[in-house]
Design a protein that fits this description.
The protein is mostly helical. It has a domain of about 140 residues: Alpha Horseshoe (Serine Threonine Protein Phosphatase 5, Tetratricopeptide repeat), CATH 1.25.40. Helix content is about 70%, strand content about 0%.
Length: about 425
């Protein structure tokens, strides 16, 4: 679950499920899992009944049997490519290469385990968790002693609502301290939720504490938000408040933290603070909803939300910078220059504001001002690669339909300083 078992959604129920369709899907999946008839630490192959399907009719899983071996050397090579793509946040390439590795050798246990954890980090629709569970279980059929596969199985089972077997798998997996910290973090988080659900509050808190300690930077806000929810539920609002303030200080656009703060502050009697957090949460949630490819009307709405965020959340230092980038993406170069002037007046010049100004000037056709801003950018931060100049001139080419020969000649002049 390294980023994880789903996106933050404060509009969902505590289980992250919304709507009758998802509840039906969850019930089908859990029934199927329980029908497998395997204990959490089973070491024997088993065949499964017909798997459930989602609304489109595609299967969530397939029969669990020991696969036939293939080309392990080829699988290992493909796995390395998958891991490199994953590290570079090229999820589509990573997923394809993981699948190709398993096509080369279905018994390649490392590929199954890495793919399982990869799937747990994707947006939650129960299909990903079901597929991850399948990979972990096959890995454990190949080696029943594999603690990392057991841990992954426990996380997947907790996410689909199969608590009994999940606890046994999590306890087994967490005995191995050599497993990656981010994965152990997710294991402790799952076990904390299970312990709390069963009324074992002290044990739950211990596991939440372990999860916070082990959390990688990309996990930290989500893990602390989960812990804060627990603390608030057990009446420790002041501690929950401090955790959430840490979250928004480190990640000001963390949607769920603002939602939780709005509820917590209201309960603590801070009406103004709660109203501000509700407003910020509403804007951030809508920006998340508008993150896909947009129509012109939706793009305008998104710009409006960015402006609202600048006004409503002055503590968010990057709010105006994100607005400027949005304007540049829509080729609103004159508007971008206005916002850049406001940003520099409020916070001073930085390498990033010079870069944004260079793009805006280039998109407006003022290459002299663009080049001057690019030079100031390099002075501010000499480590900025020369390839960034291409981004600047791309704005010029895109805005004015500059031919390739002129574009390349100008880029060469800028690169050589001539």
């Amino acid at each position: 679950m390294p980023t994880t078992s789903g996106q933050d959604s404060s509009r969902c129920s505590p289980t992250g499920i919304s709507g009758r369709h998802h509840l039906d899907q969850l019930n089908r999946l859990v029934s199927w899992l329980l029908a497998l008839g395997l204990s959490a630490c089973s070491e024997s192959p088993s065949s499964a009944p017909a798997p459930p399907t989602n609304s489109s009719g595609s299967t969530l899983d397939e029969e669990i049997v020991v696969p036939v071996a293939g080309d392990s050397q080829r699988a290992a090579q493909l796995l390395q490519g998958a891991l490199q793509s994953d590290a570079a946040v090229r999820s589509g390439d990573a997923h394809r290469l993981f699948q190709e590795a398993l096509a080369a050798d279905p018994t390649h246990r490392d590929s199954r385990i890495h793919l399982g954890y990869f799937l747990l980090r994707q947006p939650s629709d129960f299909t990903n968790q079901g597929l991850a569970l399948r990979h972990f279980r096959i890995a454990r059929l190949l080696d029943p002693r594999d603690a990392e596969a057991a841990l992954g199985e426990g996380i997947a089972r907790e996410q689909v609502g199969d608590p009994g077997p999940a606890e046994a798998c999590l306890e087994l997996g967490l005995q191995d301290a050599s497993i990656r910290a981010d994965r152990r973090c997710e294991g402790h988080l799952s076990l904390a939720r299970l312990r709390y659900a069963s009324g074992k509050t002290e044990q739950a808190e211990q596991h939440y504490g372990e999860a916070v300690t082990l959390a990688a930077p990309l996990q930290r806000s989500r893990v602390r938000a989960d812990y804060a929810t627990f603390l608030s539920d057990v009446g420790r609002d002041a501690e929950a408040h401090q955790l959430l303030l840490q979250n928004v200080a480190e990640q000001p656009d963390h949607v769920k933290s603002h939602y939780l703060l709005s509820r917590l502050l209201a309960r603590m009697g801070d009406r103004d603070g709660a109203a501000k957090e509700r407003r910020i949460h509403g804007i951030l949630q809508q920006l998340t909803d508008y993150s896909r490819k947009l129509t012109n009307e939706e793009s305008e709405r998104r710009l409006g939300l960015r402006r609202e965020l600048v006004e409503s959340y002055p503590e968010y230092a990057r709010a105006r910078l994100e607005l400027i980038r949005e304007l540049l993406g829509l080729q609103r170069h004159a508007d971008a220059l206005v916002e850049i002037a406001k940003e520099t007046a409020a916070r001073g010049d930085t390498a990033e504001t010079y870069y944004l100004a260079a793009r805006a000037h280039a998109g407006s056709g003022d290459l002299q001002a663009a080049r001057q801003a690019a030079q100031r950018m390099k002075q501010e931060n000499p480590r900025v690669p020369d390839s960034v100049l291409k981004d600047v001139l791309d704005e010029w080419k895109k805005s004015f339909g500059i031919d390739d020969a002129t574009y390349r000649a100008t880029l060469q002049q800028w690169m050589t300083g001539s």
